[in-house]
Please model this.
Amino acid sequence: MDDSRDFLENLYDAHAAALFGFVLALTRSEADASDVIQEIFVRLARQPRRAGRMKNPRAYLMQAAYRLVIDAARRRGTRERFVQGHEPGPLFAAADDPDETAFRAALAEALEELPPEQRATVHLKLWHGLTFAEIASILRIPANTAASRYRYGLDKLRSLLRPLYEEIK
Amino acid sequence: MNPDPFESRLAATPLRELPPFLRTRVLAAAETRARRRAWFWPHPLAWGAVAAGWMAIASLHFAGPTAREASTFVPPGETPPEVRTESYLAHVRVRDIYLAGEEPMIRLDRSKL
Model:
């Protein structure tokens, strides 16, 4: 059991931050993001053999997180929005500069305007640097779909953030 | 394809950090689950013992008499059930004749006279 605990600790230290950012971008709720991460690790503890067979742990964890978020949204009966009537938590680190603070707040709001599928794609591309093939395998969609979702999402962000971006550039 | 300055600007925006309490909470929950699993999930040796037990039960089952054989088995010294039934029916026939007020007809085997 010590091996299993070490394995889970190493996995957490290596991937939990990325996982938290991804789930937080989808749910905008710190409580939901924490619950999703906990659920993933509890499932891994329940099935240590499956955990040991992971070829790409980051992709496996992201895929598991995405499925959990989608399933939770379906259970709630809301496919449009994942956020459920609570104040969204901060998505980005706090900044000292007021302009930067304003930009990060506007970026978080703009991301929330995107449909969940686009938001997931944009997040994985921009903040995790994944290829479209990797994103496609995580979201279980064709790579071309991932690329087009990213393009549409980025265009929308550009149009929403252009005035502020031009101002503080 | 190189990212444009806007993409680079977005990608450079740092995500917030993981809440520090989460590590303890998540790993504790996972460990509790792993312990429970270890407690309820039998050791391979236990599976072997269960399998051996079932094999012993199965071999005893097939080595003994079948259900039909067991039901028709007559211990030594006891009258077989079909003979007991025949005797009982003969007794009932004689009783019915007496109850009807008739003399029972005695069939004689003339060849033995």
Summary: The helical segments of chain B are 5-11, 21-40, 44-63, 67-72, 81-99.
